């Protein structure tokens, strides 16, 4: 049972994310990249801190435009590290820049990030973690698990009694494919 479903509703930051984003499928490459980046920023920190800093982070990273972020250089890293509205961790920031280049490559090799996820589904969490570690930087088990639950590739974002569960289910998240087989 997801404790998030018990604590998020009505919260000014968690509520809107829980009710309209968490677990919903159908996100495009830019939204997927943003969520991956937010999960990387969250590693070792609270999700509430990430949500508080999300507007500033989105602005500082040019809306998580993959092509712009992939072109960032050292001056951009320093600019980001100097921004008090961000989680200022060099390893996380440089990993995100690297991962933007990876997403660019996925466009050429697989048709994009969303297509890559779809082509590799279904996998167990362990298989996903191995694939993400081979493909991206700063993608340990917790980052991968939360990213895949937030995008509908793994079950568990909402408990079955949560009102949002039915809304997510109505959009046929990828994890439901196993139920139909």
UniProtKB/TrEMBL annotation:
Zn(2+) binds at residues 5, 18. The keyword Zinc applies. It comes from the Bacteria. GO terms for biological process: base-excision repair. This is DNA-3-methyladenine glycosylase. Keywords: Metal-binding, Zinc. InterPro entries: Adenine_glyco (IPR005019), DNA-3mA_glycosylase (IPR052891), DNA_glycosylase (IPR011257). The lineage of its organism: Bacteria, Pseudomonadati, Pseudomonadota, Alphaproteobacteria, Rhodospirillales. Pfam families: Adenine_glyco. GO terms for molecular function: DNA-3-methyladenine glycosylase activity; metal ion binding.
